[in-house]
Write a structure and sequence with these properties.
The protein is α/β, with parallel strands linked by helices. It has eleven helices and eight strands. The chain has an eight-stranded parallel β-barrel, surrounded by seven helices. β6, α7 and β7 form a beta-alpha-beta unit.
Length: 290
């Protein structure tokens, strides 16, 4: 059984982080991140060709995480595979020992390093959730019986600061109805907006994990506001970064403050460091979680 699921069912406030598979075969940096995460997080997301940039298979990275004592959250997008390939990948992940899957649509192909590639999008993220639920019940998407079912804790993404929010609420409800058991959100910098979103689903059988992207500078915050849909870094946070003596340290401090605020209105936090894994234990110590 998923240890993440067990922790959430027990009422623990969980912490997840993420790793990005290497663009190549050298996993030395990955192993360094694993050592940092070992004693401070409950599970680790493995991105799936994030931003449509080609990288090593998440399945190989899942194997490395499991062998090093970490529980993976295996991200899988519908962008690059049809339903046959997706189910094959999920079964392979289950055989490897993966117990958590995050179902995503994926970023647009033209945003990545292979813009000439052809996107697939045979199914969407809601249908993907439904397929994983079917695999858990012992059947494939075509209704054919498996020789053994999967045992996957099913996750999906949500965007509590999306505009208009009504469309996002409707889509999230569809994901829950399809079988999503936990949700990880896009980066949150306004805890009050997450609280409002949480209130919509607090009576549903689903766990909400709030996302935080650790800010490295005011320029990074301004860039995300201008270019990343669903993210809104408040002006007061940007001002804090601009007037600080050390923007990286200030970003860690802001993240710790957000963790404390989101702890009141979520079941956990998902900390995205963009290659700075060492900031996770610093944030959790400031937030008095380790």
């Amino acid at each position: 059984m998923s240890r993440l699921k067990t922790s959430l069912e027990r009422g623990d406030f969980v912490v997840t982080a993420e790793v990005v598979p290497p663009k190549g075969t050298d996993i030395s940096e990955l192993l360094k991140e694993i050592e940092i995460y070992k004693d401070c997080v409950d599970a680790v997301n493995i991105t799936d060709n994030q931003s449509s940039v080609m990288r090593a298979s998440g399945l190989s990275v899942a194997d490395v995480l499991i062998k090093n004592g970490l529980e993976p959250i295996f991200q899988i997008t519908t962008r690059d595979r049809n339903r046959i390939a997706i189910q094959s990948e999920i079964l392979g992940a289950s055989i490897t020992g993966v117990k958590n899957i995050l179902c995503l649509t994926g970023d647009a192909i033209d945003s990545g390093d292979h813009p000439q590639a052809k996107p697939v999008f045979d199914i969407d993220s809601v249908q993907l959730v439904d397929i994983v639920k079917k695999l858990n019940s012992g059947f494939d998407a075509a209704g054919k019986k498996l020789n053994k079912s999967t045992d996957i804790f099913i996750g999906a993404a949500c965007f509590p600061q999306a505009v208009p929010i009504e469309l996002e609420i409707a889509k999230t409800e569809k994901k829950i109805e399809a079988g999503a058991q936990f949700l990880q959100s896009q980066a949150i910098y306004r805890p009050e907006s997450f609280k409002s979103f949480y209130e919509k689903f607090k009576d549903k059988k689903v766990y909400l994990i709030a996302g935080i992207v650790v800010l490295k500078s005011a320029k990074m915050a301004e860039y995300m506001n201008a270019n990343v849909s669903g993210i809104n870094v408040p002006d007061e946070i940007i001002k804090e970064l601009k007037t600080s003596k050390n923007e990286i340290e200030k970003g860690v401090e802001i993240a710790a403050r957000l963790v404390l605020e989101l702890k009141k209105v979520s079941h956990g936090v998902h900390i995205m460091t963009l290659g700075k894994a060492e900031s996770v234990p610093k944030i959790l110590k400031l937030a008095k979680l380790i």
